[in-house]
């Protein structure tokens, strides 16, 4: 049967925490955060709703890369020779509804922060390959 998401998440957290403790890592566990806790994700939801209200985010149908084995959407960078990078399954094109950010409205501003060292928001210290990935993702 299916495992409830919260049970699965907390079980994995406990397993990983045990592994880190077994390695003797010095971690301040009082600062541990679980993104599945309402006290954490409520702010993510609040910010998203503000973006929706401001017209920065919208709901629409989009063609995506669907991995039928992992049952998930893949970014173009995760599709290698038509196959999912993790499962190796042939990726399907599938039209599904979702929420999207209107990045193109802010493309010039975002591209400047990625490519222009004179921009006050320039991503200094970021590896060139990461800046290039961001530039390609923003597009125009």
Question: How would you explain this protein's 3D organization?
Answer:
The structure is a single chain. By secondary structure, the chain is of the alpha+beta class. The protein has three domains: 1-24 and 32-55, no CATH class; 58-101, no CATH class; 105-138, no CATH class. 39% of the residues lie in helices and 20% in strands. The chain contains four helices and five strands; from the N terminus they run H-H-E-E-E-E-E-H-H. The longest helix has 18 residues, at 5-22. It is globular. The mean pLDDT is 93.
What's the helix and strand layout?
Layout: H1 5-22, H2 38-53, E1 57-67, E2 72-74, E3 79-80, E4 83-84, E5 92-101, H3 107-115, H4 128-138
Helix pairs in contact: 3-4
EC number: 6.1.1.4
Enzyme class: ligase
Organism: Hemiselmis andersenii
Number of strands: 5
Low-confidence stretches: none
Helix segment tally:
4
The succession of helices and strands, N to C, reads HHEEEEEHH
State the end-to-end CA separation: 45 Å
Give me the secondary-structure category.
alpha+beta
Oligomer: single chain
Write a short abstract of this structure.
By secondary structure, the protein is an alpha+beta fold.
Features:
140 residues; alpha+beta; 3 domains; three-stranded antiparallel beta sheet; two-stranded antiparallel sheet; 4 helices; 20% strand; globular; leucine--tRNA ligase; nucleotide-binding; protein biosynthesis; aa-tRNA-synth_Ia
């Amino acid at each position: 049967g299916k495992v409830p998401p919260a049970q699965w998440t907390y079980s994995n957290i406990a397993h990983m925490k045990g592994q880190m403790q077994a390695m003797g890592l010095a971690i301040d566990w009082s600062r541990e955060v679980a993104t599945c806790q309402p006290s954490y994700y409520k702010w993510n939801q609040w910010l998203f709703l503000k973006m929706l209200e401001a017209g920065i985010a919208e709901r629409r149908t989009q063609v995506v890369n669907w991995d039928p084995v992992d049952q998930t959407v893949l970014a173009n960078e995760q599709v290698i020779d038509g196959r999912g990078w993790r499962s190796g399954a042939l990726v399907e094109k599938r039209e599904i509804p979702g929420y999207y950010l209107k990045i193109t409205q802010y493309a010039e501003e975002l591209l400047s922060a990625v490519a222009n060292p004179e921009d006050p928001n320039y991503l200094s210290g970021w590896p060139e390959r990461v800046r290039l990935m961001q530039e390609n993702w923003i597009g125009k």
